[in-house]
Amino acid sequence: MLELAILGILHRAPMHGYELRKQLGCLLCGHRPAFSFGSLYPTLRRLQRAGLIAEDGGEPSASAGRARRVYGLSAAGREHFAGLLAEVTPQHWEDDCFGVRLAFFSRTPPEARLRILAGRRRCVAERQERIRSTLDRSCEHVDHYTRQLQRLGLDGAEREVRWLDELIEAEHRQR
Amino acid sequence: MLELAILGILHRAPMHGYELRKQLGCLLCGHRPAFSFGSLYPTLRRLQRAGLIAEDGGEPSASAGRARRVYGLSAAGREHFAGLLAEVTPQHWEDDCFGVRLAFFSRTPPEARLRILAGRRRCVAERQERIRSTLDRSCEHVDHYTRQLQRLGLDGAEREVRWLDELIEAEHRQR
DNA sequence: TTCGTCATGTAATGGGTTACATGATTAC
DNA sequence: GTAATCATGTAACCCATTACATGACGAA
């Protein structure tokens, strides 16, 4: 997931780790509290060793102790990224991943887009049903606060389903 | 977090692990995909060794290979749970924890309730502001899909703030 | 008798955070 | 010259998941 996000952002423009993290935080926009450097930098190293990204502009590491390391996507990286975007697995519509997947939709093949949106819709509709049935079963004997929480969750799920329907419809119109 | 949730559910009624997991799934209601047994059972064991929970009804483990183990809160467990509910830390209003914390609000001291609700409100309002400013800055040059995602996120944050305001107001009325 | 569900558990693994340490650059 | 911020990195740890293995019990 972090890997996908990094490749996707570097696909737009070369960047150093610190800046990358800011963009990442922007991308995830509150869905999760931006990745820590402790996971970001090791991942960059791993991607570099794997040949998917490369340092731009010679070797700044030789100049001074610690300088910016600007990374860019390599040809292999671009290819790998395209491969990831063409994939569709159930994981892609789970909460963790869906946001990141959507962020790179403009470079995702249209069929993959539709399948992910459909999967997400199913997933959220199921959650909605689960909450609704819990809410129905627990008419009076359940904690007031728990019920409020369920109400919020149900509302959120309903809104997301409508939002997804709009996106799906837009996809169909576009064809 | 898992610990808090387990203690809270066992506080209502003694229960075995399998059943506990179902209740847990209900409690978290889609906020996260219920804990796996691989983390549930070891945690039960840990709580048992710590003396916070105890097996009900003698030793069913002697009767057959694997039978249900029904756990209940011990006196120490009840005390520990009360202590946890009286605590208020920033962590308590983060996404991960807030739902579980709220689920046990009826046994949470009123001042702690208000402080957690206020913290959560601040947290969500900050997210809202962050998204709004991102959305403003990125008028036209940002990806259409990313903008849609931000729109959904902003909407969700706004609704949660209103929802929190209702809860907070209800708390004040109740005093 | 076999299949699905209930029920408990262990070991390997993973993906991330926290805390810590270092150094460069900019603003006051 | 010193404080804040920018910037990179490592090591220890935590919490949970996955995969696996065992076994009871009821229904077809």
N- to C-terminal distance of chain A: 29 Å
Shape of chain A: globular
- Portion in helices of chain A: 55-70%
Average pLDDT, all residues of chain A:
89
Tally of separate domains of chain A: 2
Reconstruct the topology from this structure.
Two copies of one chain form a homodimer.
Chain A: H1 2-12, E1 15-16, H2 17-28, H3 37-49, E2 53-55, H4 60-63, E3 70-73, H5 75-86, H6 95-103, H7 110-137, H8 144-174
Antiparallel strand pairs in A: 1-3, 2-3
The structure holds a DNA duplex (28 and 28 nucleotides).
Quickly list its features.
three-stranded antiparallel β-sheet; 175 residues; DNA-binding (chains A, B); mainly alpha; DNA-binding; homodimer
Descriptive overview:
Two copies of one chain form a homodimer. In chain A, 69% of the residues lie in helices and 5% in strands. The first copy, chain A, has helices at residues 2-12, 17-28, 37-49, 60-63, 75-86, 95-103, 110-137, 144-174; strands spanning 15-16, 53-55, 70-73. Chain A has a three-stranded antiparallel β-sheet with strand order 1-3-2. In chain A, helix 1 (2-12) crosses helix 5. The first copy, chain A, is globular, with a radius of gyration of 20 Å. Residues 60-64 of chain A have low confidence and may be disordered. Chain A binds a DNA duplex (28 and 28 nucleotides) through helix 2 and helix 3.
